Amino acid sequence: MAKVNLDAIIPREDFEVIGSQNSTNLFNSISISNFTGGFFYPFLRKPDFQRETNEWDAKKIAEFIESFINGELIPAIILWRNNTGLYFVIDGAHRLSALISWIKDDYGDGEI
To answer: Model pTM?
Structure first.
């Protein structure tokens, strides 16, 4: 089965991005609902050094989403917030991209 390229779901950025963002919210936890609107997603980035998010095929994505829906254990996603307010995905880019793709119905195969 062909791999699904979800690399564009989370924009890439250098850790040392210069400037300021309008993110004053500090999150203790993030729920799936934070990705349905524009509240958190615009501040999410993938560091340049992260591998591309294209290792999973459609079956693996579907199995992961099913696990999430069924309330099964999902490994933690590690985020780091820089001084401009951007949240970088340190670990879990495939998991997070799969969830965002499911919410937005965007798997890179056509219009959102």
So the answer is: 0.77
